[in-house]
Amino acid sequence: MENNTLSYFNLTMFMNIRHYHYLASVFFLLLYSFILSANLFMMLIISQEKTLHEPMYIFIAFLCFNSLYGSAGFFPRFLMDLLSESHLISRPACFTQIYVIYTYASYEVTILSIMAYDRYVAVCHPLHYHRKMTSKTVYALAVLAWICPACNLTVTVVMVVRLPLCGNNIQKVYCASWNIVKLSCVTTAVNNLLAMLGAITAAFLPFAFILYTYLRIVLACWKNSGEVRGKVLQSCVPHVLSFVIYSITSFSDTALSRQNMEEINPFVGHNVVNRISCHSSSFESSHIWP
């Protein structure tokens, strides 16, 4: 029977770990504290050190801020659920969490894309770098990187909110749009099509762009000396590795959401979420301290 007035959802994937839930809570609290302190520390260094007021480091500061934003959308609620016997989440809070986590993931991709463009201009057009990457251009790209995912996710969330639902059990440790779509009482072909198009736009196009820019960088460096190639690799490889790791973990989380999670060890889902949430901190560290 259709129910358009569900006031809460039930997160069913929390395991009964008995007296170990306090130990788990301490571990994830320390992890969250590390993410907060590491990213705040990076942002403080970049803001205080004038020599780091360059496009690449400004983009790293944006990544740090985005990591704080995304972790705030996941960890506080997750920590509360670890210590609670009930795992009910209100409808507004659930859709808010969906919006925050999904925009965080989209922001990560778009910021990594403009960082790839920055490296491309620096390596392939070094004489025109300061003319092309002015402060106005940097902040215009940053605004574009924030606005486009926000608009895309707003449309997605609104479509999911309007679906009539026949249940309230979400097989996950956090709210996810696909898990709510599966509760719909009506056909979701339109939602699935739009979700596929949105995924292609949000993931594959930036991925293709990053591959293209770094292919151009490799070709440009091939003719240079070994010392120049070494400096370029030192600057670019951490970025490429971070994007590859991010893409793999994001794909894994998406693939898991399409499976019957009752037949999968919940710790698998937990690990994927945690890797996505905390990989940004190590990325920023590898760039500032090469």
UniProtKB/TrEMBL annotation:
Topology within the bilayer: Multi-pass membrane protein
Residue spans crossing the bilayer: 20-45, 57-79, 99-117, 138-161, 193-215
Domain G-protein coupled receptors family 1 profile: 38-245
Any Pfam family hit: 7tm_4
InterPro entries from the UniProt entry: GPCR1_Superfamily_Member, GPCR_Rhodpsn, GPCR_Rhodpsn_7TM, Olfact_rcpt
Keyword vocabulary terms for this entry: Cell membrane, Disulfide bond, G-protein coupled receptor, Glycoprotein, Membrane, Olfaction, Receptor, Sensory transduction, Transducer, Transmembrane, Transmembrane helix
Principal subcellular localisation of the protein: membrane
Gene Ontology cellular-component terms listed: plasma membrane
Subcellular location as annotated: Cell membrane
Domain of life: Eukaryota
Gene Ontology molecular function: G protein-coupled receptor activity; odorant binding; olfactory receptor activity
Family: Belongs to the G-protein coupled receptor 1 family.
Annotated protein name in UniProt: Olfactory receptor
Native organism: Lates calcarifer
